[in-house]
Amino acid sequence: MSPVHLFKYREINNWTARIITHNELYFAKPQELNDPWDCASRVSFEGATPAQIRDLVHVAMKEALCNLVLSTAKFEEVVERHYREALTDPDGFLRDAERGLRDSIQVGKGVYCLSEVANEAQMWSYYAKGHSGICIDMSLPEILTSARAVRYMGHLPRFNFFDLPLEQLADKVLFTKHNNWSYEHEWRIIQREFPPGAHHFKYPLVKRVIFGAKTRPPDVKLVLGWLKDARLDVPLYQAELDPCQPVVQIRPI
């Protein structure tokens, strides 16, 4: 079950403006994320049998020929031809399959990252430009139920493609990160209908806005202007830094 609140830390820029004024979210490619191990395919095809290699060829051909209209007999003929070619160098074919899976994830998936907390000092530092941006309490009624919590582990295991159903395998690759990032308390939205790029929604995406402890008055005024342009009357909050420890307090304005 998704938490009641999911937050997006943002610096003050055009992409942030479009969240507020255009109800627009940018789903990033995994290769654009700041963790180079994020969504990096740790999947091996080691030990594949001839029958499993044929299944891989079938899947690859179905994807490659999706825009062509072929009879079942013609399609199976193409699969059989490529299968025989794969068997001439099965190790090479499986290396290519691993690389193809990794590349398809890195450039083909759209990822929208959120946090379940609004008072994490490191998040304010990294994603809100040194506490000078904002944190948006997101309103995502149509897709919030698809948000999934990231699992954090002390090491990133390698999986065998043939040991798990594809859905479970994808889940482990896309929603597992190293413990180094656990402070993010991250949730993700990854859906087929949201490939990489900007996506427009028909409803406001902002539930409330939290200004950073170092958000400059001109930027506060700019954000208030965006809210006015979007005709959004939402609660406003202010982040404050504890003078003695790295703790962020949130109070209503």
Element layout with pairings:
Blueprint: E1 7-10, H1 14-21, E2 24-27, E3 43-44, H2 50-64, H3 72-88, H4 90-108, E4 112-115, H5 121-127, E5 134-138, E6 148-149, E7 151-153, E8 159-160, H6 166-174, E9 176-178, E10 186-189, E11 197-200, E12 206-211, H7 217-229, E13 236-241, E14 248-252
Parallel strand pairs: 3-8, 7-9, 12-13
Antiparallel strand pairs: 1-5, 2-11, 4-10, 5-12, 6-10, 13-14
Helix pairs in contact: 2-3
* DSSP, total strands: 14
Spatial arrangement of strands, main beta sheet: 1-5-12-13-14
What's the gyration radius in Å? 22 Å
Supply the number of helical segments: 7
Element-by-element helix/strand order: EHEEHHHEHEEEEHEEEEHEE
Low-confidence stretches: none
Shape: elongated
Head-to-tail CA distance between termini: 30 Å
Largest sheet: 5 strands, mixed
Share of helix among residues?
A: 25-40%
Proportion of beta-strand residues = 15-25%
Helix/strand class: alpha/beta
**Whole-number total of structural domains:** 2
Overall average residue pLDDT: 91
Explain what this protein looks like in three dimensions.
The chain is of the alpha/beta class. It folds into two domains: 7-32 and 111-252; 43-108. It has seven helices and 14 strands. The strands form five sheets. It has a five-stranded mixed sheet with strand order 1-5-12-13-14. It has a three-stranded antiparallel sheet with strand order 4-10-6, with no helix packed on it. Strands 2-11 form a two-stranded antiparallel sheet. α7 links the parallel β12 (206-211) and β13 (236-241). α2 (50-64) crosses α3 (72-88). The radius of gyration is 22 Å and the shape is elongated. The two termini are 30 Å apart.
